[in-house]
Structures are given as structure tokens and as C-alpha cells.
Design goal:
alpha+beta, Beta-Lactamase, 6 domains, six-stranded antiparallel β-sheet, five-stranded antiparallel β-sheet, 24 strands
Length: 739
């Protein structure tokens, strides 16, 4: 049984009742048994004396006449008639005259009365060798002159009666105990119920319900205890209330002390830390987060003014964003005032700021200047219960005074960087084409050289490399730039329609020719015709095209005469036309007519230096189209773009950037914004690299084995590995010594 069981008051009360009942039962039982035993013994002695007295009267005459037979008979009859008598015998002069023992009178029984007077009655108690207990009564016969009668009574019957009484008393005591425990249980439960309720209520008492009042009625003691607890709760509540107030005051003092310490340390270190930053964005974030650490109001932003372009920038410590030009005048007008800080309650001003609380009742503006030029301002939204602390405002002004020079230098540095980038972009492009790779630069020079002439140009390159843009550049630089530039995709028309599209047809020339149609060559007269996918045209169309190139004359389908034209021809293909000539799919003479000036565009994988330029160019284009403020591509994402093979060339890159801009959720393009083929390519490169490493390892092991004459120990030593590792690799690569 658990020791906690005895800690219960109810258990202890029940044990006390049980102990009291048991103790009372034992005492009463012992008293009753003692009295009963005494009564039985007294009765037995009286009975024995009565028997002895009667027998002594009956035996006196017979003993005097020495009729021992009659004496023996009287004793035997008496023994049979009285079951309580165990033995009878008569002694005279210390000799046994008659007796009722079958084996003779025991010696110790005779010796009991040796020293006793024979003229008086004596009672003895003794135990036999078998453990039976007896009462022995010595009764004088005829005043001892005729001898002494000894009567023995067994106590066995008496003891049996006492034992039965003891058993009955035990049962009665047990019944009384059970009844007492049951009644005690209900009574104690009833009496303890208010105390248990009180205990449960007190158990739920904690710091959240200090105002609790116990309403429990019971006996006088319970009522006193309830009153004492209520009084204690009141005192604890008052004490906790005072303690909370003290803690709040202490926390406020600690907070003020920490803020003052931070303000002091920040003031000392801000200039040193901000000197390590050159980027305007990082400087603004640092200033905002620094001021947030030392002031209580956390709804805080920083505005930077580009006074030349009249554009405001906003930093909230995490994001740096460009605001609309329309908001410049609103913000600058409020910030460009001599006093600091400036307190305003104009709600229209807060609505000019994105992600700013519009429920504030007032706002504090701390402008900062450099050489009397307002660079920007710190804007702090003040809640209704805000108490502006003068020391905090002084620290903010001191910090802004220290960092204004750094902000100005960073702004100028940022402006210079942007200017350099614009110059680089200008240098890196040509007639809307982007690229600074030497290969593409050579093409720019070639365009400059061939553009002034009317020489036919064949532009070759993989799909998506920008063949049409090169053709347009040749046209735009040439003297024909003011005339039409007609693009014909030869692969988009079947052979029968292509001739009509190129050269036109007369009315009724074929079924469906309900009117005359002017061909593309005629439409481009004085300008340029760009034949894209020239390798797809039929042999018949090639014949007519050859005549155009040779004579600058065309014939409409169904027409009777030739028409003189003045058109420059540029062609492009992603096929190897020389192979097409060898295979009989392209006229050789036409090939040489077209291939006067060949321009071979390199695939994007061969001009990786241009990938960042092209990617940023497309980023600006699609960010502007979709109205998103995406300013750059993350370095990891750019690394994936550089490592990709770009089978679709510039067209695939453009589509990938458009895809990324569409999915982007921030001001950057991240890896997870890129299309799956680029991401899958990274995993494939890892697998290929693993295969290459395994192949190199196998080759190295074979070379060292041959150099060591296939000595495994020497080979393992040379490779710097254990022999067990060497055997594992031999088994993995299935390297077996040649026989």
C-alpha cells in the first residue's frame, strides 16, 4: 500500500474509528470472558464440593466398617453418573484405599496433598502429562478420621465454553467494526464534503484569478477556514497587484536604460559601421533598423529623394522600392522644412506610402540634409498612446546628421553605377541587338561593312540565334532603311502558294485567282526582302528566285511579261545549304548567288558572356510589360543560366526570362522561378560529373596497377588507400589482371 494512502484525513479518521472499535471490542471481550471464566470455575468448584460432601456422608459408615467394595461401587456409580468428574479416590494415612483409575493412581497426584492437613478442605489446580488441566478437591471424611476423599474435575469443558464465548465475541466485534466503518465512512464523507470542495477551489487558485472568493458553507470550523482563505486571497491579490506594478516600473526602467545604452552605443558606432557600406540600399536598411532598435515606435520607414529625376525611394529595413513619380511632390513638400521633427496629422500623406499604417493619428518626420540639400527623411508613425521622448528625438537627429554624408556619397555612387551600366549597355548593343562577345562584335562590324551595298547576304545559324534581327539591322543601316522591309517565312507556305506569295499572280491564273495580286518582291521595291528559312523552298521557286537575283526581274504567275524591280535580297537558314546542294535539294548556282556575303551567327552556348546582358535586357522588358518591380536576377539563378546549354538559343532564353518574371513574387528572380528544363539540366550535369569521376578513377587505378606490375600492396600505397578499399574498387570496376 502506498504511503500516500495514510496521508488522507478521511483514511486516518476511518482508521481511528476502526482502532477505537477494535480496542473497545477487545477490552469488553476480555472482561466478559474473564467474568464468564470465573463464574464457570466458581460453579464447577461448588458442584465438586457438593459432590464431595454427599459422597463423604455416604462413604463414612462403609469406610469405618472397612467395606471397601461398597466404597468402590459408590465411587464407580458416581463417576458414571457425573460426567464432569474425571476421577475419585479415597486416601487414609497417605494410602489409597479405593480409586477409579484404570492404571492406578498417579504418584504426582498423591504427592499434591502430602503436606496438607487432612481435616480441612483444599482445592488444587494441576496439569497432567498430556497437558489436560484439572481441579482437584480434597474433602475430609468424618473430619479426616475416615480418610480424605479426592475429587478431580476436568477443565476441558470449561475451556470449550470459554473458547466459544471468545469466538462469539470476536464475531460480534467484527460486525460492530464493519457497521462502524460503514457508518463512519458516510458520516466522515458528509462532514468532509465542504473541506473537499474548499480544497478543489484552492487548488485552482493561480495568478490569473486572484480575485476569487470562496462561498462554501459548513460547520463552524469549515466556515472559519473559508474565511481565513478568503482573507489570504485578498492579501495575496493585493500583494500580486503591487508586485506587478513594481515589475512594470522595473521593466520600464530597464527598457529605458537599455534604450539609452543602445542609443549611446549606436551614436558612437553608426558612423564607423556605415562607412563599410557603399550600396545605397544597404545603407538605408541599416539606418532604418538601427533607429528601430533605439526607439519604441516600430512603424518606421525611410524616404530618399532623387532630386534630379524627381523620384522617391522607400526603405522599411527589409525592402527597397521605387515609388511613383506623382508621390515625389507630396513627400518632398512635407520633408523640405527647416524644423525637425515635423509632426503632421494629414491622412493623405500616409496614403502616399505603401505598407504604412493608415490608422495612425499623427506622424513624426525627421528630414536630413547634406549641404542644405534635402536628401530624405525618417517617417515614424505615432500611435495614440505614444509619448515622444526628447532624448530619442535628439539621438535620431544626431544619427541622421552623422549618416547624411554617407547617404549622399552612396546615392552619387549608385547614380554613377547606373550611368556606367547604361554606357555598357549602349556599347554592348547594336541596332536593338544585345551582345559584347567578340564573335557578335565581329558581326556588328560586318553589318556596318555590307549594309551600304546591295550585295546579297546569307545569314546562317541555329534556330533562335536572331537571324531576323541581323537582317533588320542590315536594312536599317543601309540606304534603303526608309523603304519597306518585307519578311517572308518560306517554311510557312506550300510550294504552290510560295511562288504566288513571292511573285504575285494575274487574275484567272489558277482556280481561286479572282483578282490580280502583287507579290512581295514588288511590294518591297526600293527596299529589302528577307527570305527566312530559304532552305525550305521548292526547286521551281528556286529557279524563279535565281532569275530575280540575276536580272532584278520577276514574272507574275499567269503574266505575259517581266516586271523590273529594285529590291535587295537577304536570306537566312538554319540548315547547311552546302549539304543540301550535295544532296540535290538546293540549286548550286542559287547557293552561290545567295552566299556572296555569309554571316554565321554563333549559338548562345558559344557566347556565354552575353547571357547576363541578354537576361537583364529581357528582364527589364517583361517586368515593364507586366508592371512588376523586379530589379535583378539572383546570383544562383544566373549561375544556372550560364551553365545551361540553350538548345533554343536566344529565343529560349527570352521565353525563360518571361516565364520567371511571370512567376516571381519579389524584386528578384530566384532559382525556383526558372523553367523546369533549366533546373533538370543541373541534376543531369551532376550525374554526368559523377560518371566522369568514376571513369577517371577506374583509369587511374589501371595505370597505377600496370606501373606497379599488378602488386596490390604497392598500388594501394601509391593511391593512398588501404588494400581493402583497393579490392572493393577492383571488384566495383571489374578490373582483372590480364593473363
Amino acid at each position: 500500500m502506498s504511503f500516500n494512502f495514510f496521508k488522507s484525513l478521511k483514511t486516518m479518521l476511518l482508521l481511528s474509528v476502526a482502532s477505537l472499535v477494535i480496542l473497545t471490542g477487545i477490552v469488553v471481550s476480555q472482561l466478559m470472558i474473564q467474568n464468564y471464566s470465573t463464574a464457570l470455575l466458581t460453579g464447577a468448584i461448588a458442584r465438586a464440593e457438593s459432590i464431595a460432601h454427599k459422597l463423604s456422608l455416604d462413604l463414612t459408615d462403609r469406610i469405618l466398617i472397612n467395606d471397601l467394595v461398597a466404597v468402590q461401587k459408590i465411587l464407580d456409580d458416581q463417576l458414571q453418573s457425573e460426567t464432569s468428574v474425571s476421577y475419585l479416590f479415597v486416601m487414609n494415612n497417605h494410602e489409597v484405599l479405593v480409586h477409579t483409575f484404570s492404571d492406578g493412581v498417579p504418584v504426582n497426584l498423591v504427592d499434591i496433598s502430602k503436606n496438607k492437613e487432612s481435616t480441612k478442605t483444599h482445592i488444587f489446580k494441576f496439569a497432567s502429562e498430556t497437558g489436560d488441566r484439572f481441579l482437584d478437591i480434597q474433602w475430609p471424611i468424618f473430619d479426616g478420621k475416615a480418610g480424605v476423599l479426592r475429587v478431580g474435575l476436568s477443565e476441558k469443558g470449561l475451556r470449550e465454553k470459554v473458547k466459544k464465548l471468545r469466538l462469539k465475541m470476536t464475531m460480534v466485534t467484527l460486525m460492530v467494526l464493519i457497521v462502524s466503518l460503514i457508518l463512519g465512512h458516510f458520516l466522515i464523507t458528509y462532514l468532509l464534503k465542504p473541506l473537499i470542495r474548499l480544497t478543489n477551489v484552492v487548488k485552482n487558485f493561480d495568478a490569473d484569478n486572484l480575485d476569487i472568493q470562496i462561498d462554501i458553507k459548513g460547520r463552524t470550523e469549515i466556515n472559519r477556514l473559508v474565511s481565513a482563505y478568503n482573507g489570504m486571497f485578498v492579501r495575496i491579490s493585493e500583494f500580486m497587484h503591487e508586485l506587478k506594478k513594481s515589475n512594470q516600473k522595473l521593466e520600464q526602467k530597464n527598457s529605458d536604460l537599455d534604450r539609452a545604452h543602445k542609443q549611446m552605443m549606436t551614436t558612437f558606432s553608426v558612423s564607423q559601421k556605415i562607412a563599410a557600406f557603399t550600396d545605397l540600399k544597404r545603407i538605408c536598411h541599416y539606418i532604418v533598423n538601427t533607429i528601430k532598435d533605439i526607439v519604441a515606435c516600430q512603424n518606421l520607414t525611410m524616404v530618399i529623394f532623387d532630386n534630379d529625376q524627381r523620384i522617391p525611394y522607400l526603405s522599411d529595413g527589409k525592402n527597397f522600392q521605387l515609388l511613383e513619380k506623382e508621390k515625389f511632390d507630396i513627400l518632398f513638400k512635407k520633408a523640405n522644412q527647416p524644423e525637425s521633427p515635423i509632426f503632421i496629422k494629414d491622412r493623405t500623406f500616409t496614403f502616399a506610402l505603401p505598407n504604412f499604417s493608415h490608422t495612425t493619428s499623427r506622424m513624426a518626420i525627421f528630414p536630413f540634409r547634406h549641404h542644405k540639400q534635402t536628401l530624405g527623411a525618417i517617417l515614424i508613425s505615432c500611435p495614440d498612446d505614444c509619448i515622444c521622448i526628447k532624448t530619442e528625438m535628439d539621438v535620431i537627429k544626431l544619427i541622421l546628421k552623422q549618416v547624411s554624408g554617407a547617404v549622399f556619397r552612396a546615392f552619387e555612387h549608385d547614380r554613377e553605377i547606373k550611368g556606367l551600366k547604361r554606357k555598357i549597355e549602349t556599347v554592348s548593343g547594336y541596332m536593338k541587338m544585345v551582345g559584347k562577345d567578340p564573335k557578335i562584335q565581329n558581326i556588328y562590324k560586318l553589318i556596318e561593312d555590307v549594309a551600304p551595298t546591295d550585295t546579297t547576304v546569307l545569314i546562317q545559324g541555329e534556330s533562335g540565334t536572331g537571324k531576323e534581327m541581323v537582317a533588320k539591322a542590315v536594312h536599317d543601316v543601309s540606304p534603303r532603311s526608309g523603304k519597306p522591309f518585307i519578311v517572308i517565312n518560306c517554311s510557312a507556305y506550300p510550294a504552290t502558294l510560295l511562288e504566288s506569295e513571292l511573285f504575285g499572280h494575274e487574275k484567272g491564273a489558277f482556280t481561286g485567282a479572282v483578282q490580280r495580286k502583287i507579290g512581295r518582291f514588288e511590294q518591297a521595291s526600293g527596299g529589302t526582302v528577307f527570305l527566312d528559312e530559304i532552305g525550305e523552298i521548292s526547286l521551281s521557286a528556286q529557279t524563279m528566285l535565281l532569275r530575280v537575283l540575276q536580272s532584278q526581274k520577276i514574272e507574275r504567275i499567269g503574266g505575259q511579261g517581266s516586271i523590273q524591280i529594285n529590291t535587295r535580297v537577304l536570306a537566312a537558314t538554319n540548315k547547311n545549304l552546302l549539304n543540301e546542294v550535295k544532296n540535290g535539294h538546293f540549286r548550286e548556282d542559287l547557293y552561290y548567288r545567295l552566299n556572296v556575303i555569309p554571316i554565321n551567327l554563333p549559338p548562345l552556348r558559344e557566347r556565354k558572356v552575353d547571357i547576363p546582358l541578354l537576361a537583364n535586357h529581357f528582364l527589364k522588358k517583361y517586368a515593364l510589360e507586366q508592371g512588376k518591380s523586379i530589379i535583378e536576377i539572383d546570383s544562383e539563378a544566373m549561375r544556372l543560366l550560364l551553365n545551361y546549354s540553350w538548345p533554343g538559343n536566344i529565343r529560349e532564353l527570352e521565353n525563360s526570362i518571361e516565364h520567371a518574371v511571370t512567376l516571381a513574387k519579389s524584386d528578384k528572380i530566384y532559382i525556383f522561378d526558372l523553367p523546369n528544363p533549366i533546373l533538370d539540366n543541373t541534376e543531369q550535369q551532376k550525374k554526368n560529373r559523377s560518371k566522369i569521376l568514376k571513369a577517371n578513377e577506374e583509369e587511374a587505378i589501371r595505370d597505377v596497377l600496370e606501373a606497379c606490375n599488378w602488386n596490390k600492396t604497392a598500388t594501394a600505397t601509391q593511391l593512398g588507400i588501404s588494400r581493402s578499399t583497393l579490392y572493393e574498387k577492383l571488384k566495383r570496376y571489374n578490373i582483372i589482371q590480364p593473363k
